[in-house]
Amino acid sequence: MSESTPGFARLAAEIAATQDRAGAAERLAAAVKLRLSTPPRRRARWALVTAAGVATSALGLAWQLRPATFGFVGAAGPGEAGSVVAASTPETLRFSDGSVVELGAGAAARVVGWDATTASVLLERGELRASLVATERRWTLRAGGFRVHVLGARFTLRWDPARRRGHVAVEQGALRVEGPGVRSRVLAASDVLALGEAPEPTSVPAVAPAAAAPPARAKPLGPRRERVLADPGALLAAADDARAAGRNDDAAAALRRFVTEHGADARAPVAWFTLGRVEGERGRHADAARAFERAASYGARLAVLEDALAAVALSWARAGDATRARAAAVRYLAAFPAGAYGSKLQAIRDGGPPAR
Amino acid sequence: VANPPAPSATRPAPAASDDDDARATADARLLGDLRRGDPRAREALVDRFAPLVRRMLVRVLGASDELEDVAHEAFLRILASVARVRDPRQLTVWVTRVTVFTARDHLRRKRRTRWLWFLPHDELPDPSAAPRDADGAEAVRAAYAVLANLAVDDRVAFALRAFAGLRWEEVAAGCGISLATAKRRVGRAEARFLELAREHPALRAWIDDEPARGKA
């Protein structure tokens, strides 16, 4: 077997080293577990149908949230579904399945209700820290217009109703967030999502705690978050993590910020190229073409220059701009007359359908 | 798509070590919990096998934006069929096999719809590893571009043997085929892979092991 030749063995080792990213399996496990625990998301086109059935749903909801054997105990004793807990000092709600919700001082929350498979809590203001035990029960925590769907996780949720701002910070496990500007976003351990009802929320992984340190209680976002975001390495790591989790919107935001603030960084050409890929994956082919152009503008500093030049032409073709696609194809063919993408780009240059 | 056949009860098992015994005990407990419908067992199964499933998928598929989707599908199939595993020592083999079958089906689906794209995005290099070793990242991308030209069954067996480093018996068990068939598929795939790789500028030096690459 030529597998045993040194060259082939090094290639196989390179493949393994490139593919075995630290923490990737844990992140995949978290994403898979969350998918297994949540039903498929309803499509937007069903919104009208759903709205038309509000009356029926309300009746169903009342039935669904009827008290069952599940329950909780607070500082004042056993609580009832629908009761509001306003904590002037930190208060702990202990649920019968072992889940714990700790309310910070000044927080107010309503335990909306539960049934055999679900439980719902509304955070009206302040901060709570939830340690929800993984059972068959799906939890939904609401804050403003946001909904946090959880099977089992430890996380902090904060909401300021006056500013309509908050955040969710995951310490352990995974959860899914929906709400204004957030179609459906899966967060895993160490992820922080800023919640805001006006602008698009931004998500960055929090700084990973030391391995030996006990799980630290997540702190509200503030100046520390800005410092993390501004760090070029953290931005690239955030982009990588977002891509790995399928959050291309976040990946694009992190990469754009990187190339904007760190255009002189040695990693900028690769960041532009990656941004092109992400924009293409988001279906924004014109933006992808522009990003690839910026990547190619670094010339030989970009290891994948040939691919970038080809991608410019192909992205413009996908964007429906035949003129720019043709010009880019001509440029590629001049630079790489025997290049790997030759047949595809010749077809674009000649105005015919691209070769497969 | 049908799941692969259950592991053969007649296939001789290798000699067991203490680690194997401990793993078998844990897997037996896990299987029992799954059969009883313990909701935590599903998560335990995912935790236990996510590294294996991911490793098999990325070795066979390469960098893919659909990795999470394929892994999800693999675990759904595993959970739907795990009750068929009677011998806890065969659980890992079973998970490997279902994962390999899921990857193979994914490749077949992609091949059927390939005409929709004239350059899928996953044909573009993923430069995330480029700062570490641009040549290496390019070679990895090129290797999977070459693999895409192989017959799916041959590609899967070859990737398991050459890139995942499985033993021949494991390749055969993962693909649900005989040892002879596994060797035949890998041999055929290897010959084609080398032929195409030598024509690829990013792979030629690796395959021919040119000293000019400067890699110790």
Structure, explained:
The complex is a heterodimer of chains A (356) and B (216). By secondary structure, chain A is an alpha+beta fold. Chain A is elongated and about 80 Å long. In chain A, a hairpin with a 2-residue loop joins strand 10 and strand 11. In chain A, 40% of the residues lie in helices and 26% in strands. With 216 residues, chain B is mostly helical. Chain B is built from nine helices and no strands. Chain B has helices at 18-36, 39-61, 67-81, 91-112, 134-147, 152-163, 168-175, 179-197, 204-208. The longest helix of chain B has 23 residues, at 39-61.
Question: Secondary-structure map with pairings?
Answer:
The complex is a heterodimer of chains A (about 350) and B (about 220).
Chain A: H1 6-19, H2 24-37, H3 47-52, H4 54-64, E1 72-74, E2 77-79, E3 84-86, E4 91-95, E5 100-103, E6 108-114, E7 118-132, E8 138-143, E9 146-160, E10 165-179, E11 182-188, E12 191-196, E13 203-205, H5 223-230, H6 232-244, H7 248-261, H8 268-281, H9 285-296, H10 305-319, H11 322-335, H12 342-349
Parallel strand pairs in A: 7-8
Antiparallel strand pairs in A: 1-2, 1-4, 3-6, 4-5, 5-7, 6-7, 7-9, 8-9, 9-10, 10-11, 10-12, 12-13
Chain B: H1 18-36, H2 39-61, H3 67-81, H4 91-112, H5 134-147, H6 152-163, H7 168-175, H8 179-197, H9 204-208
Helix pairs in contact in B: 1-2, 2-3, 2-4, 3-4, 4-7, 6-7, 6-8, 7-8
Total strand segments of chain A: 13
Major interchain interface with per-chain residue totals? A-B, 56 and 61 residues
Report the order of strands and helices of chain A. Answer: HHHHEEEEEEEEEEEEEHHHHHHHH
Helix content of chain B: 55-70%
State the helical fraction of chain A: 40-55%
**Largest β-sheet summary of chain A:** 13 strands, mixed
* Rg calc of chain B: 19 Å
Q: State the end-to-end distance of chain B.
A: 46 Å
What structural category arises from helix and sheet content of chain B? mainly alpha
Task: Tell me, briefly, the overall form of chain A.
Answer: elongated
Low-confidence runs of at least 5 consecutive residues of chain B: 6-13, 115-123, 127-132, 211-216
Please describe the biggest sheet of chain B, giving its number of strands, its sense, and whether it closes into a barrel. none
Mean pLDDT of chain A: 75
Shape of chain B: elongated
Individual helix count of chain A: 12
Average of the residue pLDDT scores of chain B: 79
Give the assembly state of these chains: heterodimer
Rg over C-alpha atoms of chain A, rounded to the nearest angstrom: 25 Å
Number of helices of chain B: 9
SSE string of chain B, helix = H, strand = E? HHHHHHHHH
